[in-house]
Amino acid sequence: MSVTFVKEPNEDQVEALPERDLGTDPNFVTPRGLTLLEREIEAVTRAAERARAAGDKIALAMAHRDLRYWRARRATAQVVRPERDSDVVQFGHAVEVQRGAEPARTFRIVGIDEADPAAGLVSYLSPLARQLVGREEGETVRIAGAAARILAILPPVEA
């Protein structure tokens, strides 16, 4: 075989990184979520500049991939603002629930990229959020297999 057809690695080459999955669900965001997307783009842009300055091709390739992802997320973001005085749980609302004798907990229903369950921010696609959306104060839902009562629907938080 001729060496013409053999692709030998070159120190300047960086293997193509797989793209980050954008998903197929609508990209609903709260006003805060939109701000977070914009901050992420700024942070990754700075990381790309640092990688370029350092000549770190791998870090630069990763930053470029992340920039494509976050810019696509920003481009498809649909800001959703729930009614402030709604009687039913909507995207963006915080919901205070109590399960049995446990202390009450508050969960805010947010977009996919804004979700942080440990901080009480749950994606609108999560089973918990699906249980809560459309419900009213006083109703009972199932959370982790147990009955929980909705104590309050709290207004959305602006960015």
Describe this structure in words.
GO terms for molecular function: DNA binding; RNA polymerase binding; translation elongation factor activity. It comes from Aureimonas flava. Keywords: Elongation factor, Protein biosynthesis. InterPro entries: GreA/GreB_C_sf (IPR036953), Tscrpt_elong_fac_GreA/B_C (IPR001437), Tscrpt_elong_fac_GreA/B_fam (IPR023459). Pfam families: GreA_GreB. It is a single chain. This protein is α/β, with parallel strands linked by helices. It folds into two domains: 67 residues; 61 residues, Transcription elongation factor, GreA/GreB, C-terminal domain (Chitinase A, domain 3). The chain is 31% helix and 20% strand. The protein has a five-stranded mixed beta sheet. The protein has a two-stranded parallel ribbon with strand order 1-2. A hairpin with a 2-residue loop joins strand 6 and strand 7. Helix 1 runs antiparallel to helix 2. The termini are far apart. The model has no long low-confidence stretch (mean pLDDT 87).
What topology does this entry show?
Blueprint: E1 28-29, H1 31-54, H2 57-76, E2 78-79, E3 94-99, E4 105-110, E5 121-123, H3 127-132, E6 140-143, E7 146-154
Parallel strand pairs: 1-2, 4-5
Antiparallel strand pairs: 3-4, 3-7, 6-7
Note the main attributes of this structure.
Chitinase A, domain 3, 7 strands, 5-stranded mixed beta sheet, two-stranded parallel sheet, 2 domains, 159 residues, 20% strand, alpha/beta
Summarize the structure.
Keywords: Elongation factor, Protein biosynthesis. This protein has 159 residues and is α/β, with parallel strands linked by helices.
